[in-house]
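Worked example (supplementary).
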Amino acid sequence: MKSAMIYQIAEMKKSLLIYYAIMLFLLLASFLTTEVFFHFSANGTTINGIEISSMIFIFVCGLNSFKEPFRMFLQNGLSRKTLFLSYLCSLLPVSGVMAIIDTSIGAIGRSLGSYQSAFHEFYRQYFPAVGPGQVFIVVFALSLMLYTTSALTGYFITSLYYRMSKGLKLLVSIGVPVLLIIVLPIVDMGYANGAISRGLGEIFLLASGVKAGYNPLYPLGSCIILSSVLAGLTYLLQRRAVIKEQV
Amino acid sequence: MSIEITGVSKSFGPVAALKDVSLSIAEGKIYGLLGRNGAGKSTLLNIITNRLFADSGTVLIDGEPAAENDRALGKVYLMSEKHLYPEGMKVANVLKWSRHFYPDFDMDFALTLAEKFGLNLNKKVKALSTGYSSILKIIVSLSVNVPYVLLDEPVLGLDANHRDMFYKLLVERYSLRPATYVISTHLIEEVAGIIEDVIIIKEGEIIRQESCEGLMAQGYTVSGSSAAVDQFIADKIVIGSDDLGGLKSAYILGTLDRSAVPAGLEITRLDLQKLFIQLTA
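After joint prediction of all chains, the assembly is encoded as:
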């Protein structure tokens, strides 16, 4: 298990370093541009959204985290159960490190007056009311859970696609966007009188804590539930996965 | 200590790859797993190593179920025709990770072998030719130091020199640190001299599992002038023959009565490949 975790973390380490090198370069360039050269912050211009970039990055990492490690583990006498557990156990520290870096960048950026985290934007009613220590903890916890959920979403999708036949992959790749972009709005507006979109909106408002007065603890709970469901489904997909081509 | 396979069946759609296969692979022997293309050799090896799931039956490694069991699977290494290492991984990293996953992996021996075979450690796996890909797998197989090493077509793409090196290294390694080696190959003549037991698989069923000596003792080869050989084999079960000019070799199944062998005919061991062809035809 230890070797499996070391392998999983090593797989993510290189892309993580490249990602943060790029992000730090962009943040520094933005900071120099807005603060030093043009003094934009005097007009209220801020940089934000590193959390969204990190979510996308770790989602893509999740998408690329199944096939190669699966083959490598089977080649080296490790089970699917170890593959799955080692991914979960290595994802948490990776998400944690990313959350600490992003939260720290946010804290430093805010103190310089040129950075606003996505969470501060969304939960602007909550954060001014709490102390800086609690802000750090809440932003860290939110980042950690959102990154973990994003990665598990990617991991679930790639595991699902691996188990599908070529025909089914094609059907899902075309069918799901068609269902969401064309069929759902038609059914919603034509037959359900907007009840579906209203229902989905209600779920989002509840899960994100908006209905509870912009409480960021709600999305924490939502992410824990969603992560657990995704992890469970992913394990069910992986436990019977086999090497597809003749080896 | 053994690998026990009991009642294993596996189908791919309508094709039955393995039919109720039962066999025992004992500790410290070199086995030849022989069968024609599509006989089910690779499927069997993949099921033993948890890469495929059997439809029914069990595989026990030293008494423990192999399926999804790290401890049992850690005792087996399968060198398959196509490896499962990441294509972008460097050869040196394949060795490095093998040492991580197999605690007894002998890195010094692996590096010595890499030098002997002329394998470039800085090359990526995807850049290796078929021959050097086999060499990489051979190096890992011989260095991994697990009780059971399964070799599926180990000399694929190797030239004669490298094949010879491999067989010598295998025997050397086996004598220094005995383990069970199962060699699945089409090159029967090349492995005939090193295998102790033979497992012959035909259309998904094990048709023979016995010692190589025992199998070879079921017949003999008679050589001499064509006329004399033809006369001698007239009432015998002939599984094959080779003619060269006026000389002939015939492969006979049955017990030899040495007193009935006329002068001028030479009797030698049965050819394993000829016997294999006869048994699997």
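Two points are worth noting when inspecting this output. The two ends of chain A are 25 Å apart (CA to CA). Residues 2-37 of chain A form the longest helix (36 residues).
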